[in-house]
TrEMBL record:
Top-level taxon in the UniProt lineage: Bacteria
Residue span(s) of domain Response regulatory: 16-134
One GO BP: phosphorelay signal transduction system
Lineage, highest ranks first: Bacteria, Pseudomonadati, Campylobacterota, Epsilonproteobacteria, Campylobacterales
Keyword Membrane belongs to the record: no
Protein known as: Response regulatory domain-containing protein
Length: 140
């Protein structure tokens, strides 16, 4: 795990994240956890707001968020609907799905999303997942 953590910390300061979580307590805990690694984190609590932020971010900065972290059960557009729309805007978009409902993960795989973290989030698995995502982002 130390090697993964070292790799994660090497590049994490350059990653821009949009977190989509409707439970304010969970969102607050996730942001606190993410700030251990990442410095640029935006958040919102529903799929419609997430899509608007995503589009506006691209208009303002000329590129997309590096990573979207979304729950499955969010108001407006659910996690699957949101992911489909994000992938229409940017087919290479990195999306990480977090949920306690792991049986729904295969629905995401059907649309091209393959990164998942089961809630409650295991710290070691989270570090490995973020490291894997960052390596892939740095290769593209």
């Amino acid at each position: 795990m130390y090697k993964d953590l070292k790799e994660l910390l090497k590049y994490s300061h350059t990653i821009k994240i949009l977190l989509v979580e409707d439970n304010s307590e969970v969102k607050s805990q996730l942001i606190k956890l993410l700030k251990n690694f990442f410095t640029d984190i935006d958040s919102c609590d529903n799929g419609i707001e997430a899509l608007q932020k995503y589009i506006n971010y691209e208009k303002i900065y000329g590129n997309f968020y590096d990573l979207i972290i979304t729950d499955i059960s969010i108001p407006g557009l659910n996690g699957i609907e949101l992911s489909k729309k994000l992938l229409q805007c940017n087919p290479k978009q990195a999306i990480l799905v977090t949920s306690a409902y792991i049986e729904k993960f295969n629905e995401f795989e059907n649309i091209g999303v393959y990164e998942f973290l089961e809630k409650p989030i295991d710290y070691e698995k989270m570090v490995k997942t973020f490291t894997s995502i960052i390596k892939r982002l740095k290769q593209s």
